[in-house]
Design a protein that fits this description.
Length: 208
């Protein structure tokens, strides 16, 4: 289907361009959202009469979007979610969640303006594009963490997944040692780790 664009549409064209798109995309998105008209002879003439008004409205909306963009671009937001040890979320962070978060911070935003291809499903730092206007896009930073402390560590650039794996390996090694050695030997090892320079008890013989 051929349509006349009533505003700039990413990867398609500018206002006034006549482009050919799939029928489903035209009916379900472009025409329904008022972003285009069928490229009929009648609509081509209609567009010429609408053009001045459309351009004026687009300029006004773009100017307003640029004001918001100046304040929103680069802003950081934190989302707390439960997650597995490997960092996989029990659920996800959706465009609706992010729109609500940004709106709570004082910016009017709809989920359709959150240009996220897929929901966020892992903890970490994420850069999310926000489309304030067809010609105005900004980027926000979203920290997804289990708790506030973890969010701060992520913000400092720490790789919490690596740290957690090292902690787990150390804990496993300590547990194995305690299961193998006598209690006196475990106490001696712990004293050495704490930097105790005093005399240490001799390790007892292994049990038969």
């Amino acid at each position: 289907m051929e349509v006349i664009l009533l505003e700039r549409v990413a990867k398609l064209g500018q206002m006034g361009d006549v482009v050919r798109v799939k029928d489903g995309f035209a009916r379900n998105y472009l025409l329904r959202k008022g972003k285009a008209l069928r490229a009929t002879k009648e609509n081509r003439s209609r567009f010429e009469h609408m053009k001045v008004e459309l351009e004026a409205r687009n300029l006004e909306q773009k100017t307003e979007a640029e004001k918001v963009a100046h304040k929103l671009d680069g802003q950081s937001f934190t989302v707390l979610r439960q997650a597995a040890e490997g960092g996989q979320l029990y659920g996800s962070v959706s465009p609706r969640d992010l729109a609500a978060l940004v709106t709570e911070a004082g910016f009017a935003l709809s989920r359709a303006q959150v240009a996220l291809n897929a929901p966020i499903k892992t903890i970490g730092l994420h850069r999310v594009p926000i489309s304030l206007h067809p010609e105005v896009e900004v980027m926000i930073k979203v920290t997804v963490a289990r708790n506030a402390d973890e969010a701060q560590r992520l913000a400092r650039g720490e790789d919490i997944t690596v740290v957690r794996e090292e902690d787990e390996e150390a804990a496993a090694a300590a547990a194995a040692a305690e299961a193998f050695f006598e209690p006196e030997a475990v106490a001696a090892r712990r004293s050495r780790e704490e930097g105790d320079e005093g005399p240490q008890p001799e390790p007892a013989e292994e049990k038969k």
